[in-house]
C-alpha cells in the first residue's frame, strides 16, 4: 500500500525557515517525478515544487529562490527546505507523484505569522 507521510510543519515567524519531510512507501520513488503541493485556507491545492528522477527541479514563481526540493532515494524521503517564509506561505503541504498522483496523505500544516 502506497503511503505519503508528511512532517516538519509548524508555527513560525516571517523570515524564518522550516524543513518538510515526506516519507514514501512504494517502489516507484526513485523512478518518478515527485512534488510538493500546498493548499491555503479556502483555496485549491497548488503545486509548489517538483523534482525528476534525475534531480531536475521546477518551482512555482512565488517560491523560487526561497524553497528547495530534494530527495534521498536510499530512504525514500522527499524534502522541502523553506527559507524566508512569508505569511502567504501558510498552508497545508502535501507530497505526491506528479504524474497520476496517488492517494493523498494527511499533509503537514505550516503557519507563518508574527
Characterize the structure shown.
The chain is an all-beta fold. It contains no helices and ten strands. The strands form two sheets. The chain has a six-stranded mixed sheet with strand order 2-10-9-4-5-6, with no helix packed on it. Strands 1-3-8-7 form a four-stranded antiparallel sheet, with no helix packed on it. The mean pLDDT is 95.
Put the structure in a nutshell.
The protein is mainly beta and 114 residues long. It is 0% helix and 49% strand. Strand 4 (34-39) and strand 5 (45-51) form a beta hairpin.
| Helix percentage | under 10%
Strand content: over 45%
Q: State the end-to-end CA separation.
A: 40 Å
Oligomer: single chain
Assign an overall shape: globular
| Average pLDDT for all residues | 95
Helix segment tally: 0
Q: Low-confidence segments, ≥5 residues, pLDDT <50?
A: none
Question: How many strand elements?
Answer: 10
Structural class: mainly beta
Largest sheet: 6 strands, mixed
> Which sequence of SSEs, written as H and E, runs from N to C?
EEEEEEEEEE
How is the largest sheet built, in terms of strand order? Answer: 2-10-9-4-5-6
Query: For the CA atoms, what is the radius of gyration?
Result: 13 Å
